[in-house]
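Before going further, learn to read the protein records used in this course. The integers have meaning only within a learned vocabulary of local backbone shapes. The record below shows the convention in full.
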Amino acid sequence: MSYLDDILGVADKRVLVTGGGRGIGESIAEGFVRAGAKVYICSRKTETCAATAARLSTFGTCIALPAKGDIATGEGRAGIVAAMSERETKLDVLVNNAGALWAAPLAEYPESGWDKVFDLNVKGLFFLIRDLVPMLEAAASKNDPARVINIGSIDGFHIPKHETYAYSSSKAASHQLSIHLADQLAKRHITVNVIAPGMFPSKMMQGTLDRVGEEKVLEKVPLRRLTGPDDMAGTAIYLASRAASYVTGAVIPVDGGTATTL
């Protein structure tokens, strides 16, 4: 085994990626599969999730969980935990990527939209971690902790111009929650970190790109490009590797410098 394989390798790790059927979750799942991990993905859209798992299985091991991946509900979370428990006794890496966004003018912002975003982005994230801690702890050791990687957003600390009040607030909450959990779970040898992506060309972002144009959007990005699949996968693999075994409570912006230089 080479030094790089040893310090950055994630081969044979058991990984669960929520919202893994498309977008950022799919990119992260593909990175782990290609790196030799055993990857489980779940999504609210079971057909999309199954199709993604079939595609990624050409590169390694990727399994779509049959339970609906709606972590916003207790029933959905229980289904995910049960499906994982039937297949594994240990979980090395949990990637919480599933998320929701709602945009509306202030005077028209619905309570139902606010609840939908917070139920998934904050409440669901917290209780899924809680319920999977036993499996994470079973895989953990002092020198090789289990890992929780939460996908936040630069909107959690960089105020967007769009009226996405619940989204930016929920991401700020998830960042703080992750740091709190990092403190509490350290004694159980579980690290908790956040990746805060910038402008990734996902379904959430596509409306802005179509309306404003990519060139105009990129005027705000010092590195002058969108966040790419390898940017997300590479950061997640680092956080899951031995190289990051001493990193916890970190919020890492992957945004081309948008949030930290403007």
